[in-house]
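Batch job 17 of 40 flagged for manual review because the log was empty.
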Amino acid sequence: MSALASSASMAETGKTGDWTIQAGDFANNRYSALDQINSGNVGQLRPAWSFSTGVLRGHEGGPLVVGDVMYLVTPFPNVVYALDLNNDGRILWKYEPKQDANVVPVMCCDTVNRGLAFADGKIFLNQADTKLVALDARTGKPIWSALNGDPAKGETATATVLPVKDKIIVGISGGEFGIRCHMSAYDMNSGALVWRAYATGPDESMLVDPANTTQLGKPIGPDSSLKSWQGDQWKMGGGCAWGWTSYDPEADLIYYGTGNPSTWNPSQRPGDNKWSMSIFARSPDTGMAKWVYQMTPHDEWDYDGVNEMQLVDQAFDGKQRKLLVHFDRNGFAYTLDRVTGELLLAEKYDPSVNWATKIEMDKSSPNYGRPQLVKQYSTEANGEDSVTKGVCPASLGSKDEQPSAFSPRTGLFYVPTNHVCMDYEPFRVHYEPGLPYVGATLSLYPPPGEKNTGAFIAWDAAKGGIAWSNPEQFSVWSGALATAGDVVFYGTLEGYLKAVDARTGKLLYKFKTPSGIIGNVMTYAHKGRQYVAVLSGVGGWAGIGLAAGLTDPHDGAGAVGGYAALSEYTSLGGVLTVFALPD
C-alpha cells in the first residue's frame, strides 16, 4: 500500500488518482480531474475485473481507493472488504461486524449503506445498528467504536460519514419511527462524542443561537422550534440527517439537510415543524449553527431535505459568489449564498412538479422563501382518510439521496431524477417507541400521459433551467460522476452503466451490469491507468420490492407497485464492476 493520505488532503482527492471519501471531495461535487477516459474514447471502455460482495440487498454508495487498495462495504450486515488493486481485487482483509438482525425490520427503505470514509490511516464504518467503527486501514482491525443511537427506538444508520479536521460528522436515520433526530461529531482518534445537534427542541440542544443563527438574513429568535410544534410533539419530531454532508474549509462550515417531520399525517402536527426539512450551516468544531433555511415548512408529502449540498464558486447575476446548490426532494432546485444563507434562486427542475407554484422570492413578502401551495394537492387540506390524487413529485421526490455531480469545465450540474407522481392518503397513527410512525398510504405512477419514471438532466444553477434532459424508463437511482474528460457517468435501475457527453447529453457508452445500479459511480487512477467503478445490486426505495421480496403494491410507500415492471429487467446481486480502456 502506498502512503496513506491525511485528512487535510481530502479536499484535493478529486484532483488525484485516489478517491478517499464518498463524494470525492468536501464540496460534494463528484468531479474528477482525471481525463485519460474522455468523450472521444469512452466508447471503447471494457470491464477490467469484477468482485461479488456476497450480499443480495440494495448496494448504495461506492468504493474508495487509497493508494493500491480499494475499500467497499456491503448492505447489512455491512461487511467491509479491502481489495488489492495490484491483483485484480484479491481480498487483503475482511471485516464482518456482529449485528443483531432485529435491526433489519427497523430500517426504512432497504438495508442500504452509503459507503465508507477514509482519513488518518483509518476506515470509518457507520453500521446499520448505529455503531460507528474506526478500522485500521492496513489490517482491518477495530481501533475504536461508538454507539450513535438505539435501534430499539427506531434509530438506524444508512449514511456515510464525513471526516473533517479531527472529527467524524455523522447523522442518524429513523424519521419513520418518530425519533428525535440529530447530527453528531466524534473525535477521530478516540471515538469520544464532541457535540450533538438535534433538529428539533430547545435552542441549547439544537446548538442554535437565537440572536445570531439566522434564516434568510434574520435571527431565528428564541424557541424557534418549540413554537412550531404542538405541545411536546418535537420529542418525536423526526428531522433526520441521513443524507450527505459537505464542508467549506474557507468558511469553516459544514452543510447538510434534515428530513421529514413525524408523522406523515400533517393533521397530527400543526405548525411549521422546525427544523425538519431544512438546510443547516454549522461549525464543525462546536456544532453551532450559523444559518438555517426551512424549504418545506409543515411538510405534507414526505419531501425529506437530506439531498446533497453542492458547493461551487460561480458567477451569479454578474457577480462571483460562493454558492450552495441543492436539488430537493420537493422538486425545486435551490441556489443560496453558502456563507450568508441568502436565497438566490429556486426553480422547478422537473416539469411535472405541481404541489406548489413557486418559491416566494420577494424579500418584502411575509412568505419570503416559502413554497406557494396548490390547495388541490394539499394532503392536509383534503383531510385524513381522504386520497389526494395526482401529487407531483411523489414522496420519493424529484430526486432522492442519489447524488448529483458538477463539472467546473461546463458549469453544469448533472442530476439523476425521478419523474413520478402519487396518490396520498393520510391516516391517524399512535406513537409507540420502536414501531413505525408513518400514517399514510401511497400509490406511485408516472405523470399523466407518460410512461417514463426517470430522467438524467443537466442543470444550469445560475439561470435556473435545464440545459438538456435524457429520459429513462425507470428513476435514475444511481449517483452521477463528472470528469475532466467531459464525460458524465451514471447507472440505471435496469443495470446499465452509461456514459454521456457532458455538454450535449449524447449517449457515448453503455454496459449492462449483473444487477440494477443504485450505487454511485467513481473513478481512480492506478499505475498510470484510469478506471471507473460502480456497485450493482438493485434495491433501495425504488427497488425495495425486488430486494425484500414484497408484492403488495402499497408496500415500500407505494414503490412496490410503482416499480413492479423492474423485475422484468433485472434481478438481485451485489457485484462491483471495474472498467478501463483497452491496453
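Reviewer: the log was empty due to a logging misconfiguration, but the result itself is present. The helical segments are 203-206, 379-382, 544-548, 559-562. Unflagging and moving on to job 18.
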